[in-house]
Amino acid sequence: MTWTWLVGAAALVSALLWLSAVGWAVVAHRPASVAAAGPTMELRPEPPALVEFLTGGWQAGRGAPRATLLDLAARGLLALEQTGPDPRHTLVRIRPAREDPAEDLLPYEALVLARVTALASGGALPVGALARGTEDEDRGWWRAFGRAVAADARARGLARDRYPARLKAGLTLAAVLPAALAAVLFLSLAGPGGWFMSLAIVLVVWFFGSLLVSRLTGERETPAGVEACAHWLGVREWLARDESFPGLPPAAVTLWDRYLAYGAATGVARSALAVLPLGPRDERRAWSTYGGGWHEVRLRYAPAPARTLRPPRESVRLALRRIGSASIVLLLVAWWHAHPPTVIRLPVASIALLVAEVALLIGVLMGSRWLWTGRRPVIPLAAYVYGGLLAFVGFTGGLQASGEWAVPPQAVWAQLPPVLITGPALLGYLFLLATALLDLSRRAWSEGEVIRLRTGKGLHHLALDPGGRTAVTAWPVRPELYGALREGAVVRVLRGPVLGHVYEVVLVTPSPQGELFPAGFSQDEHADGHADGDADGLTAENGPPWGEDTRPPAPWAGVAALFARGDPKEFLPLAEAARILRTELRESEYSPHLGIRTYYTADGEAFLLLQTASRALGRRLLATHKRRATPVGAGAADEAYLRGRRMVLRRGDHVLMLQLPFDSDHSVLPALAEAAARRMVSPSP
Asked: Cα angle vertex 119, ends 284, 279, to 5°?
């Protein structure tokens, strides 16, 4: 025990010492405070974003993009026009690019210009529309902007690494000591048999220590940076002497030229900063140009119940099934009320069988939720009615050992629970049936501009502005309709008026909006002079890695080919499968990321599951399913394996897996595989 306490104290002391060393590194290597060199109106060559970086503690703040936008306006690349008494009524106009090579933009300036031009319609947009993208998209754009500013500061000799590489390496190495002592402590408590877990503790503690050290990043001053910062602090003092300067609107850049941009960079031009909302968008407001001219639209998001996302045809089938099940229960209750029995002989011959019957009933009731949401909701309702009868049997004591029960007058109350449960359910499904039929008969097309696409918590919403509206509702849509859309596109939407189900979305005019990142821009190439791999997968364009009509560029082409999949119905069409199985089938929605499609029977039961893959994924799929399977022939297939209700076959690079339900005739699998093998000759999907 003395040895254990000694090791525990040593582990605690070493951990505290190591954390103290990390804290000392953070404090000792923070950027130094710089005093102003005195008021001055002279401007140095550093751009406003770099000035904000120097005067803001050697990190780019949220005012840097706004100051850069004002600087672009002062240099003639943009124009800011105030159209009303309120500074928020300011219009940003895109001016033609100059041919002077001296006007080449720095990477972070190109980022700001690309963000503005991406939203401009007809070369103009209100400042309120500058907020764009979700918080995740804005975080990626902001990370790229901050890295580009830091890289420029290093290139000019104004900044350096806050934490030297030798310091971080020493802290990482020193983390081995508390990790080793923690392992020894565990070994002394667990005994000789805990050596394997003690090794795992060493690795885990050291990993978290090295992870903490890796988070020590940032920039600090250099002698040249201190000199530049002192000068710009003097410029800030000179600008602050003008009492009107903090209240200047963005349009005042035409009079103050670049001084307004530097005032925004140093935090003096507070009104100009407040008017320019560069950042993530407001999910409750959007800007639209549909119908002529920019106008702001308020948004509300409609709830997304299952009946809205589910096609109304499926709602009709579901409602009919549930109405039929509920009607059976209510008819049984009505028959009981019209012909009340006096003696009931229950299917038990002894008290022991009654106990077994009650136990079976409990199991049925526990699965009633699954049964209700499945295809046979009458089962849990019938079980409930039967359970009510058994409960009255126990309470009244009228059950004899022979199983004969003299029904007491109180048994009439057994009708109440199924009526209270089934009655409201019947009314609800009658309402669902009526609304689904109305939705099918009165659906209509509407056209407008997509002003908001939002994804969150597994839901997809689309907001459409038909023109001249001040408030619109964002509708829930299915994911397959959502993926090909972009904000700013003009579309036609077929939608039901009652349930609000979106049937179809047809693109009329592609979105004129550009990308957040300019062409050819990469986040990593401006990341502290080297690529550290801390990007969110954003490359030159913040969107799909390739367009609709172009082949994916490298390295996406190799990745796409390696994990290629295809739609299984190309190999086994619905009509062919229905002919072989001799039953009516309908197909499910395709899962492109899994390569899975399911064929259902007319009553909605999953009957045939198909999964396909090619190349690397195909070989993996084949190796997984051929274990302990029997090799069989399948026509033109190179190889095929059968095991129970599942069959997998390969022809060339294509692999297809077929699976039937447990209670079906599995002898048809070879015929299905032979029919599919004949079609597995197309190029790899």
From this structure: 55
Question: Which tokens in the block code for residue 589?
Answer: 């929605």
DSSP three-state, residue 308: helix
CA-based max dimension of the chain: 108
**pLDDT number for residue 23:** 92
In one-letter notation, the amino acid at residue 403 is G
Residue found under tokens 């136990």: 359
Alpha helices in 608-656 (DSSP H): 615-625
Residue that has been written with the tokens 């690795």 in this structure: 203
Nearest to 267 by CA among 79, 58, 62: 62
| Alpha helix positions (H), 38-134 | 48-55, 63-74, 107-119
Q: What is the pLDDT of residue 303?
A: 84
DSSP string, 116-134: HHHH-BTTEEEGGGG--S-
Alpha-carbon gap, residue 149 to 528, rounded angstroms: 9
658-678 burial string, b = 16+ CB within 10 Å, else e?
bbbeeeeebebbbebbbbbbe
Could you give the angle at which helices 63-74 and 258-265 cross, rounded to 10 degrees? 170
Q: Is the pLDDT of residue 230 over 90?
A: yes
For the segment 78-96, the average pLDDT, to the nearest whole number, is 83
Q: Which of 83-92, 131-140, 257-266 has the lowest mean pLDDT?
A: 131-140
Residue-wise over 239-275: b if at least 16 C-beta within 10 A, else e? beeeeebbebbbbbbeebbbbbbbbbbbbbbeebbeb
pLDDT at 519: 58
- C-alpha 197, offset from chain centre: 37
**What region, left, alpha or beta, does residue 466 occupy, with left being phi > 0 and alpha being psi -120 to 50 degrees?**
alpha
- In sequence order, the 6+-apart residues with CB closer than 8 A to the CB of 156 are 46, 50, 224
Q: Give tens-digit pLDDT for 597-615.
A: 888 887 777 788 888 887 7
Q: Which ranges of 156-284 would DSSP assign to H, the alpha helix?
A: 165-174, 176-190, 195-214, 223-240, 253-256, 258-265, 270-275
Cis peptide bond upstream of 340, omega within 30: no
Question: Which amino acid is it at 556?
Answer: W
Name the β-bridge partners of 160: 220
* Whole-number pLDDT of residue 188: 81
Structure tokens given for 264: 């925004």
In DSSP terms, 220 is beta-bridged to: 160
pLDDT single digits (tens) 414-430: 667 667 777 887 888 89
Angle at 523 between CA 519 and CA 525, to 5 degrees: 95
Residue 489 is which amino acid?
A
- Stretch among 267-281, 428-442, 464-478 having the lowest mean pLDDT: 267-281
Q: How many CB atoms are located within 10 Å of the residue 298 CB?
A: 12
Residue 53 has pLDDT above 70, yes or no: yes
d(CA 641, CA 631): 4
Structural contact between residues 14 and 178, judged by C-beta atoms closer than 8 angstroms:
yes
Give residue-wise pLDDT tens across range 99-122: 443 357 888 888 888 888 877 777
